Amino acid sequence: MKASYEHIGAGILHNQLWISCPSFEFYWHYHPEIELTYIVKGSGERMVGDHIESFTAGDLVLVGANLPHTWTSYHAGSTPDSCQAVVVQFRSEVFDMKPGSFPEFNQIRNLIALSARGIKFSQSVAEEAGRQMMLLRDQQGLPWLTGFWTLIDFLGNSDNFILLSSLGYSPSLKKQSQERIDKVFQFLNQHLAGDVRLKDAADLVCMTETSFSRFFRKSTGMTFNGYLNELRLSLACRILIDHPEKSISEAGWESGFRSSTHFNRMFLSGRGISPSSFRMLYQRF
């Protein structure tokens, strides 16, 4: 998947950010730093490598070096701080990655190796890690660094996580096609609920449908229609959860599925459960 390169800063080994905004904007990018992101407020869709999933507050993900990623809100919030996140970006050199040095960092080295696929931590782990990350906001210098080491050590000793992108995923980071794929992704995010055709995307980047299909699959590891359906299913899940007043048909229509039968079939195939059963499952909580 082609992505924009984000320059963090030469010679900087670690960087902490506090993000507060009306919405998380689509920004498909990568950088050589490893990134730990904790969502304090907000919801939407998270993309890491070739993995697409809905996210809500409490989401904690570790993204490896040069692994493309983005968090995107479904719609803008009503206040300037509707979406908030605390982010720590760091280089692996912080933990001296040479084999045999500082055995206390062994678990952390394993964690960093796994982060090449992206790691999502369980709710209980995320709550504790999020608490520690919020405390780091008030620290500087050596107290910050020791607190950060403690945080990453805590994550390194946890086994409550899942890996996100597929084992065979290999991002293409050549700048030559960045603008082309970015145009397609922006187009899909803006017209997700509408009538989106393969030809529309191919025309957008001046390619034939055959060439575009080959280009898209090589870049993302997914077919164009497969990727589009996954985006729409994620949006449908959010509508079903957040808007109980809307019918199943309305949720499908607003997600871009023009047939209730097709929506139910795709939802069952992609989520292993019917839309109505999915909504009932969440209503229990």
What does this structure look like?
The chain has 285 residues and is α+β, with helices and mostly antiparallel strands. The protein folds into two domains: 4-163, Jelly Rolls, CATH 2.60.120; 175-283, Homeodomain-like (Arc Repressor Mutant, subunit A), CATH 1.10.10. The protein is built from ten helices and eleven strands. The strands form three sheets. A six-stranded antiparallel β-sheet has the order 2-9-4-7-10-11, with helices on one face. Strand 5 and strand 6 (51-55) form a beta hairpin. Helix 1 crosses helix 3 and helix 7 (224-242) crosses helix 8. The longest helix is centred in the last third of the chain and has 19 residues, at 224-242. It is globular, with a radius of gyration of 20 Å.
CATH class of the largest domain: Mainly Beta
**Mean pLDDT over all positions:** 85
The CATH homologous superfamily of the largest domain is termed Jelly Rolls
What is the topology, as strand order, of the major beta sheet?
Answer: 2-9-4-7-10-11
Question: How many domains, as an integer?
Answer: 2
Number of strands: 11
Provide tags for this entry.
285 residues, alpha+beta, Jelly Rolls, Arc Repressor Mutant, subunit A, six-stranded antiparallel β-sheet, three-stranded antiparallel β-sheet, 10 helices, disordered N terminus
Helix-strand layout with pairing:
Layout: E1 4-5, E2 14-21, E3 29-30, E4 34-41, E5 44-48, E6 51-55, E7 60-63, E8 69-73, E9 83-90, H1 106-114, E10 119-121, H2 123-136, H3 141-156, E11 161-163, H4 178-190, H5 198-204, H6 209-220, H7 224-242, H8 248-254, H9 260-271, H10 275-283
Parallel strand pairs: 1-3
Antiparallel strand pairs: 2-9, 4-7, 4-9, 5-6, 5-8, 7-10, 10-11
Helix pairs in contact: 1-3, 2-3, 5-6, 7-8
